[in-house]
Amino acid sequence: MSKLVLIRHGQSQWNLSNQFTGWVDVNLSDKGVEEAKKAGRLIKEHGLQFDQAYTSVLTRAIKTLHFALEESGQLWIPETKTWRLNERHYGALQGLNKKDTAEKYGDEQVHIWRRSYDVLPPVIEDDSEYSQAHDRRYANLDPHIVPKAENLKVTLERVMPFWEDHIAPDLLAGKNVIIAAHGNSLRALTKYIENISDEDIMDLEMKTGEPVVYTFDEELNVVNKEKLDD
């Protein structure tokens, strides 16, 4: 039976300052580095060994993966980075303080933008300092598929091709896989893996730096789920 470990990146600098981050490339905070290292120690303690690693093209996820693999003695395993595992794009909210935004638009509206399955936040303009329109890491993508705003539904739609083409085939081949990514890209994967309803997914939280371990049978049915903690 194959195993899949999901880790939301450790606390980022913008998690700490309470800003909407999305596709903006911010670093881990000191606490986030420790959370990532702790995840690696827990992985080692539980004897989890991996054949393949996946992460996004954003620094906070990449560093989380590297710290976790280093602590577990597995920094050498094959690794693939993809934009399809990026955090959801928060559109024009990117860079804004969450508290200030709630005061401006109301708690209910901000909650809908953050948690609704299919409501889009306001679209970001290309000339915004927080836009990815001119980011070199997306230069080889069709400009029409680089998002200007995403909800969880759209995030799931762009994550699924990568699941179907890479992650699922690895698991079906009996490989153990680790993914270090983001709260919403991992919520999207979790929704699919566990067949969670559009309504219930709004309440799902992914804790920073907490490894979630799935065990699958040969038909990719989940036979066990475990969260690693002290």
Automatic annotation (TrEMBL):
Coiled coil: none annotated. The keyword Isomerase applies. Its EC number is 5.4.2.11. GO terms for biological process: gluconeogenesis; glycolytic process. GO terms for molecular function: phosphoglycerate mutase activity. The gene is gpmA. The lineage of its organism: Bacteria, Bacillati, Bacillota, Bacilli, Lactobacillales. InterPro entries: His_Pase_superF_clade-1, His_PPase_superfam, PG/BPGM_mutase_AS, Phosphogly_mut1. Pathway: Carbohydrate degradation; glycolysis; pyruvate from D-glyceraldehyde 3-phosphate: step 3/5. Catalyzes the interconversion of 2-phosphoglycerate and 3-phosphoglycerate. The active site is at H9, E87. Keywords: Gluconeogenesis, Glycolysis, Isomerase. It comes from Lactobacillus pasteurii DSM 23907 = CRBIP 24.76. It catalyses: (2R)-2-phosphoglycerate = (2R)-3-phosphoglycerate. Belongs to the phosphoglycerate mutase family. BPG-dependent PGAM subfamily. Substrate binds at residues 8-15, 21-22, 60, 87-90, 98, 114-115, 183-184. The record marks H182 as: Transition state stabilizer. This is 2,3-bisphosphoglycerate-dependent phosphoglycerate mutase.
